[in-house]
Amino acid sequence: MRWDPKGPAATPSWDGLLILHFALLPMKRIFDEVHGSIELDDLSVKLADLPEFQRLRRIRQTSLAYTVYPGANHTRFSHSLGTYYLADKIGNKLLKEGAITGEELTLVKISALIHDLGQFPFSHAIESFYITKGLGNKELRDLILKSHISDILDDYGIDHKKVRDLLNGTSMLTSVIDGDVDVDRMDYLIRDSTHTGIQLGRIDLDRLIFTISYRENGISIQDKGIISLENFYLSRLHMYQAVYYHKTILGYELFLRSIYSKLLEECETRLEVEDIKEMIERGTFPYWDDEWVFGSLYRCYSANPNSTTSQMIKDFLDRRGPKVVYEEISYDNEKDTKFNEVTDRLARHIPQDSLYPFEEKISILDKSRIRVMTKDREIDLDGYPTLLRSIPERLIIRRVYVDRRFVNRAREII
């Protein structure tokens, strides 16, 4: 920022003031096991100290992955800090390139820091119960942001509506947080790989960040960074298979969701959508976390240890969850499936609450949204020789789980 105090342009721009303001504020350093030293400015410290953000210390990043990978006990808290770090790194690169303003850099960093505020206890395991009732993590995050957090942002001169628009929108800035190759995925692939011990999530972050550009309708990658991008998408595919949709981990998530629904019917009767909204208003929401769920399981079991629900709770805690009896894995093209036929056949012989059918089509990449910059021109992915053209765009998983006591009968029926 050039500023002549005696000249006609004696008033610096808003962008310059914002950068200067945050640069002069005291910084706090946190050591992260993935990225090393992470520096937080004054506003970020203020947000991180809020009970709603501290709650993320008590929500595991990979839900029930610890049932298979004992080291996977890392949290949404550390992931949020890592996402902030990467947003700061990419944001400053975009700022130097003139692609964004100083105000937009601040918006990107803050949005990255708080992007997971709406995560449910045990993440997707419990979220799937509420999605059927119209409440997902994005809707929950919006409710939290509309509380006193919006006042804090406004006090620092940040329009909270712009933060919400960035988190929920489709702009170039949104794609940095939630897009094709975003800071959220960059962090969790490496972090989850580190804590599970699975080496499939290792990616060359520096090369990827240095060679990528963001657009509203996708990304562009310099040809010298194409291998790093290939590695990113291969890591994503492999981590989905080895961790996020691992057959045992997924089985326990389905099991916990079933237990949770019974928990609300029999033991914790005030946890419908309106009750959660009321918790946010009363300020008790920050204590609805993984530990709360465990506490509810213990209370429900102790109250009536001989009930069917208590037996399910005991099986969950003793790691005696449901088993896969049928599985189909495919990529891109739909193959002939017997999933519905098998599910219907099993449903005629096995109790409904002991049967857990699962079907999901998981997006891995959208090749139409990737362009390659080579020799001062930009071309479609189809025109460049790269492994990306061979990576499947979708992973399709169909499984049927049954409670352990019905495994032999189910296999005979199939």
From TrEMBL:
The record's section on Gene3D superfamilies has: Hypothetical protein af1432 (1.10.3210.10)
Identify the InterPro entries for this entry: dGTPase-like, HD/PDEase_dom, HD_assoc_2, HD_domain
Q: What molecular functions are annotated in GO for this chain?
A: dGTPase activity
Keyword annotations from UniProtKB, A to Z? Hydrolase
Annotated HD/PDEase domain ranges read 72-198
Tagged with keyword Oxidoreductase: no
GO biological process terms on file? dGTP catabolic process
| Official protein name in the record | Metal dependent phosphohydrolase
